[in-house]
Amino acid sequence: EGMRTRSWWVDAGLFGLGFVLVMLHPYDAGVLSITGVGYAVLVLWRSGDTRAMRRVAALIGGVFGAVGYHFSVLVRETAVSGWLSQNLAFSPPAASYLWGIGIVFPLALLGIFVFVKRHESRPWWMLMFAWALATAVSIYLPFNVNRRFANAWLIPLAFLASYGLVYLFGRIRPVLGKMFVGMFLALLAFSGTVYHLAQAALYVPSAAEQYAYYLNRPLQDALAYTGSHISYPSRMLSNEEFIAMLFGAYSTATLYLGHPDQTIQYPLKKERVEWLFGATTTVGAASRKRSFVHTAGISYMVVYKPTLKSTLEWLLPIAEPVFENELIRIYKTIDTSS
Predict the structure, then answer these.
(1) Burial of 220 (0-12, 13-18, 19+ CB in 10 A)
(2) Is 330's pLDDT higher than 90?
(3) Which residue of 127, 131, 169, 213 has the smallest Cβ count within 10 Å?
(4) What are the residues whose beta carbons fall under 8 Å from the beta carbon of 218, sequence distance 6 or more?
């Protein structure tokens, strides 16, 4: 309805909506801008109506107003700009998106096919079409935060999937055929629900999820020890990646393995850490592990006990525990070269 009226109140509302959305979530700027332009071009191509361009211009005006505010914050606050430069969120391979979206994706492709075949000109469906395609392009643009553009992508895909599903049911003439398709889709939906219920019932949070917002007393004590006793040029290693990054934040020491986007040769180092803390206890393996600790220049090893898979007896000839509580044990390596 807003596209059919000439009221400036609609423009003001769209300007305010774009401003508020980007103020709340800056990454929406890209999605709103690309989707808006794509929608306006589609409307202009299908109907020749230029009013959509004016509406989208008002929306993008609000978007850029909020972007200007965020940019001014980054210029004034070096801490925020420094954090943003490390906030890397690259899109995963397409298969990861497809598995996450599930059956909605092939049904959405069917909906897009029907949309093009029918030369659909209703504004609502053109918006869903533009939104879905704009997001598909945005998530692989050459930005280090392109994964953020996938926010709410499931909304237009779900609407297009319903569009395709209605078409599919209309093409199936026999009642039994419709029942079969309906039962198949219901089975998929129900199996997903059962899976998520079982996952919720049996789920054990990882260290990253457990300590992202709250640090208990044992962890605080271990961090306090780290901050006062471990410093550069010491090098730390932990059996838990998140624990390593957390302790690295409280110390000036360097990390052997940290964030995937900030660790050189991350896959290789992650594999070595898993092997190091693995359950292999043969004499040869123990010797190779001790040699690795010295070769890698590890000064301290922070052990997160709840996920430890071995006793670390192989470590005792070259390291000694310097801190321990019910959650954390910290080893300091000993120079055995003499």
Answers:
(1) exposed
(2) yes
(3) 213
(4) 325, 326, 327, 328
Query: CA torsion angle for 249, 255, 260, 263 (degrees, to 10)?
Result: 130
Cα-based distances in Å from 5 to 47, 88, 167, 228: 16, 42, 31, 66
Q: By C-alpha distance, which of 168, 91, 99, 173 is closest to 137?
A: 91
**Per-residue DSSP letters for 273-319?**
HHHHTSS---HHHHHHHHHHHHHTT--EEEEEGGG--S--GGGTTTE
* 192: amino acid identity, one letter: G
Instruction: Answer for the pair 276, 290: CB distance below 8 angstroms, yes or no.
Output: no
Of the candidates 124, 141, 151, the residue with the CA atom closest to the CA atom of residue 39:
124
Query: Could you read off the pLDDT of 111-149 as tens digits, one per residue?
Result: 999 999 998 888 889 999 999 998 998 899 888 888 888
Collapsing DSSP to helix, strand or coil, 140 comes out as: coil
**What is the Cα–Cα distance from 136 to 80, expressed in whole angstroms?**
29
User: Which ranges in 78-234 belong to alpha helices (H)?
Assistant: 78-86, 94-101, 104-118, 123-138, 154-171, 175-202, 207-210, 217-229
pTM above 0.85, yes or no: no
Contact yes or no for 6/18 (Cβ under 8 A):
no
CA distances from 53 to 14, 15, 56 (A): 12, 13, 5
Residue with token string 């997903």? 192
Q: 242 pLDDT band (50/70/90 cuts)?
A: very high
- For the chain, first and last CA: distance in Å? 83
